[in-house]
């Protein structure tokens, strides 16, 4: 469909799709914060599950579309590259939050628990790549395991919030999850949820456009699918996470900001399940290359550093970036350098 279009037209379509993703993501942040207040589920859980999944819709469409067209590398690297990019966005948000270290101020047990779940999920593709290429209806058992672990993680996170076994120490820099308007909680969240679903559909359409553009660029300019997936489509479709994170930090909803990134990353792992279903030539884990595994390792390293930062809770003066954020940015830059050279 897009193959016959000129490069300037393709660029214009890409810019429009990017703007649609950005605007939709910004609107979603406010809706998610209000839904968290009205339902009483809390910013960390709503950010980690609802907002994290919703802002990943465009990326989901890219990976599934790529897998259906037989491009396993683009499908895989788009999902995993998005995890690395979104974690880097959190480090950027830490730089912009001037009052204190973001990971210190957003202390929340649910976010730390989801980081652990994410590390567990990231280990599954490593094992699948090393294991025999066994499939059931052309679907590797690892893809099913990813869904099971994700579902258990969501349920466990909800229970953990209701009955925490320990709590982080409150300090003068800690920003608690407090509803903005107590009276607002008495109003139904149905209208907010309907708006949220509509924005998800719009973002999905924009994601489809991005996927088509990526396929054309790879063919026309003989680019690496792994590079395009990890550094182009992954970054563009991750813009909602950047927008929602910065907007949430500006609103003072720090748990929503951190939870949205971690939850979005956790949901992005399910891109691999959809990709494996869409890829009909066997296991998607055995159709990828070393470049794709690079980003899997980068994402795991950045997540581990984030978890350590949430646990250590470094206290720093206003205006200074946290050590964990600087380390995450260094790891991401290193991944880009290896990919490029």
From TrEMBL:
Coiled coil: none annotated. The keyword Protein biosynthesis does not apply. It is a multi-pass membrane protein. The keyword 4Fe-4S does not apply. GO terms for cellular component: plasma membrane. GO terms for biological process: intracellular calcium ion homeostasis. GO terms for molecular function: calcium channel activity; calcium, potassium:sodium antiporter activity. Its main location: membrane. Keywords: Membrane, Plasmid, Transmembrane, Transmembrane helix. It is found in: Membrane. Signal peptide: none annotated. Residues 11-155, 195-339 form the Sodium/calcium exchanger membrane region domain. The chain crosses the membrane at residues 6-23, 44-68, 74-97, 109-128, 134-156, 192-214, 226-249, 256-274, 294-312. Residues 167-186 are annotated as: Disordered. This is Sodium/calcium antiporter.
